[in-house]
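Colleagues,

Please find the record for the two-part complex below.
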Amino acid sequence: MAKKRAAKSKALGSQMWQVTKAGLISAKIGEVDTPDYVVAELKYESPVAFTAAGFAAPAAAEPQASRLNQVLGKYDVAAIRSHFGMKAAAIRERIKVASHLPAAPSVAKFAGKGLDSEFIHSGFVEIVPKEGRDAKKIAKDLEAQDAVWKAYVAPRPVPAAVGSEPGSRNFEPAQGYLYSAPDGVGAEDVWDQAGAKGEKIAVCDIEGNWNRQHEDLPTGIKLLGGTPINDLGWRNHGTAVLGEMVSVPNKLGTVGICHKAAAVVQAAVINGVFNTARAIANAASKLKAGDVILIELQATGPNGKYVAMQYWDDIFSAIVAATANGITVVEAAGNGNEDFDLPIFNNTGLQKDSGAIVVGAGIPPANHFDFDNSYQLIGVPRSRIWFSNYGKILSVQGWGWHVTTLAYGDAQGGSSENVWYTLRFSGTSSASPIVTGCVACVQGRAKAKNGNPLSPGKVRQILMKTGTPQVAGPGVPLTQRIGPLPNLPEAMKLV
Amino acid sequence: MFPAVPAPGGGQVRVPVEAKLKPGWHYDSDQRVFVSDSGETFQPTDLPRKAKIVHKVPPPSGAKKLTKAEQDLQRYLQVILPPAESAAAYVETVQTWPCIADARTGPEISLP
């Protein structure tokens, strides 16, 4: 894709421009006035805090803070501040928690010991140099320090081109999942085919909540039913899912895989309790053949690990009923590191075909923002990521790590959730919308080309047959099946 | 350990008792009574006041012939208890009803 992108760069007059699907952007982005700044992420276990004056730590960790200050002392720094706008007292609190954490602590295991989202956010430091050109050097020097997990220059804003919106940055270059196979699903490669942006297809996300006012979502995303859960974590999650599929192709933020599809949402809470079967049935009753339902939920199974929702008989039947009406159901396999082929799952929905496309989480090559190949630490690209469930019913995989999309605010924060973006949406949660987007592209293309959508079974068969194969990695053999990564250009040949 | 976003606490989302009817039984939600194909009836009296019994998926309106999966869905019910009541405390009660094949608490759902 890099070659393809280079080929799309062209000289217009005396200035270099790069052609993206969003339109023209200036290739000379180094010349804009907006200063570059560094985002440094402190390691969870580093008991270091910071103020506007620099880094600080208790006596035992003073050398770590001192080395960080030595780095900053080499440069002319305009500001040091919390990337999430947290107050000084909250930043100081991180020292108490960090002092009790082991090296590389598991977030889930230590969630009850203070390793919560506030603690995680407290470790993000923004360093703004007076000279933008110092940002890259500061990032490199900080990343070499023991107390820092990662340091990088924040993505640059795209300079205003004709018709561009002011404000938010353009994160499209970090959406590696859109790129050509084998890295991505090749969405950008098929968008010039009629219908292949998901035209005339509806995608329905079933989960808990969404920020439907996000600046990069289309207006009018309808709630089909249910009661949204009033919780920031759930709202971020749903917004991130929608962003992968239908974020608007303008010059800010991201662009969705099937950005011409019509998005709708259905909350899984009905009458004050979870009722996933009814959520599926209600959504299916309002959709038509060719449309797509995404089940973005998991639940604790008999081994105490998260499993796919079709384990429960009523939900299995609801999926069967929806697919029988021509609606493709895409389902997150869940993040339990669970083997669905174990005897304990005999005669359950985890060993039967509901008709759904069950999606596992694979390791991406890079998210095209973190260009440092650090993903080698977590495994081989397109191998099963350690937490993904696996088994014979899994159909295909999607990127399960560091997907760039809307919400959360680690890539771009601010006082309004409407401008938040992330580089780190992960899990079978991030994998499933990638596949859902591919399904919508295939069905949109089928409608445009043949006049009718494909059956859900045919869509699944095409994606599995034409996808870029799963690979083995250390400790994750191919027998731990998650399936291939969809490859849209190859899939479209069979539509 | 594993990525997940649990449902928020504070009673925003309650846990129901989930139940599956024995074949040949249905629930008449208007009369709040279970009725068997042979005409036998059962009306629960051992639930707290304000407890509700609902079909997980209501019968579709109209005369459409149901598929096997849609027919199966009609067998699933939820017993939604008042906020102060624990679903776990009523699983055994619901399981003893003559019309019920299986009862359990609703699954612990999270985001993947």
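Chain A has two domains: 38-153, 172-492.

Comments are welcome before we finalize the supplementary table.
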